[in-house]
Design a protein that fits this description.
The protein has a single domain, classed as TIM Barrel, CATH 3.20.20. The protein is 28% helix and 18% strand. A twelve-stranded mixed sheet has the order 7-8-9-6-5-4-3-2-1-10-11-12. Strands 13-14 form a two-stranded antiparallel ribbon. Strand 3, helix 3 and strand 4 form a beta-alpha-beta unit. Helix 1 packs parallel to helix 2. The structure holds iron/sulfur cluster (SF4).
Length: 332
Amino acid sequence: MKHTQLKDNHGRIINYVRLAVTDRCNLRCFYCMPEEGIQFLDRKDIMSYEEMYRLLNVLKSMGVDKIRITGGEPFVRKDIMPFLQKIKHDVMPRSFSITSNATLLHHHMEEIPKLFDALNISLDSLDPNRFHEITRRDDFRQVRDNISALIASGLNVKINAVVMDGKNIDDIIPFVEWTRNENIEVRFIEEMPFNGTRNADDISNWDYKQILGHIRTEFTELEALPYISSSTSMMYQVKGFKGKVGIIPAFSRTFCGTCNRIRITAKGELRTCLYSNKGFDLLGPMRSGISDDELRILIRDVVQKKEKNGFEAAKDRNGYIPIYESMTTIGG
Ligand code: SF4
């Protein structure tokens, strides 16, 4: 049964959920977590497939029909494919996508192109040494091979590259060059302070203006493409190139006015904004037996407290909240 469309207290339609299926990952990207990892959740504290499935159905009944699967790294979760197929065929989202580091995709190359509308791959360098320096792992070759196989399958492939001063600035131009002959989207993301160790002040200062300026020094025929409402990415294309280039001002937070998303963490917390450190527990009430209608009321109440933007979310009474959480616990 269809229920009233979920809206927030700013009149924004909320129709997009980013669901984290795990907080674990097989890489150790330095801007996301320390080398030794973080205190990962116990198995009993993360949502079961049945609980996530129920939650997605309840959200779908409230008009949340765009689903992105995130993590950690989703494919490290055991037996994930039957769950993903169940979402596709039973929940039937209008849009179904996933964000992955592509290290494990070769195990599922048959099914993936049939399941998703788009696949976002987190890859910050096209150089094996820099890849190792950033991820602290040696999976570069496997990742590149998996990306080539996905592109060959015709799936809509998007590359997410976090821009980090002193780390991968030399990759920006080669990434854009990759769009010359490949119909892919390469999106450059401003670094965000979710690394489980330090606060906002320490992150790279390459903002979207600087990234764009740097690209324009090499590609003077970079044309802006029409903005898609609720998108976080400003899109461009170099004249004559097959692929596109995007810039996501994730720390500048210029796109919050049309925010349409909520996040569900692996432990079943509803997050109204990436920058908010407040999570509203849904799993506890679900395990204590609340009905689907009671769950809808709970979700609506929480979404009625959604922050206007990522700056408001990162603030408390005394000013800004230092952000120590790792992105792998929030789900990106
Ligand atoms: S920063 Fe928060 S309000 Fe802004 S787009 Fe992201 S989730 Fe929405």
